[in-house]
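Before a computer can learn anything about folding, someone has to put a protein's shape into writing. The three-dimensional part falls to structure tokens, numbers that each stand for a local backbone shape. The protein below has been through that process, and both of its lines are reproduced in full.
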Amino acid sequence: MRLIRPGDVAVFTLAALTCGLVVWACWTQSPARSLSIRQGGTLWREVSLLHNARYTVPGPLGDTVVRVKDGRARIESDPSPRQYCVGQGWLTHAGQSAICLPNATSITLEGARAYDSLSF
């Protein structure tokens, strides 16, 4: 008596392909379209990622410099003592963000994004 029949192989193959498609669809990231710069919890400016630019955002500790280049963004300098937001580096995908808590400044890349634990 055979334990695995031809129909079983077809069902297992279809299930594996379906799982692979779901994983690919849920974990692919889309490129960002714009950048939201927030200061003190309010929107300071929303800018396009198509144009290279440098923005100086005033904050309680001093100025934070945000740089946009080649469709990506980063916090270039900040007066915060530990520089965690500067160390975050270049952000490229929608939903990514860098936050400078002591200076109350944050940047977030906007665009169509996949669901994750933050947006769910």
Q: What stands out?
A: The two ends are 48 Å apart (CA to CA). The first helix runs from residue 6 to 27. Residues 11 and 17 are 10 Å apart (CA to CA). Residues 34-110 form a domain with the mini-chromosome maintenance (MCM) complex, domain 2 fold (CATH 2.60.320.10).
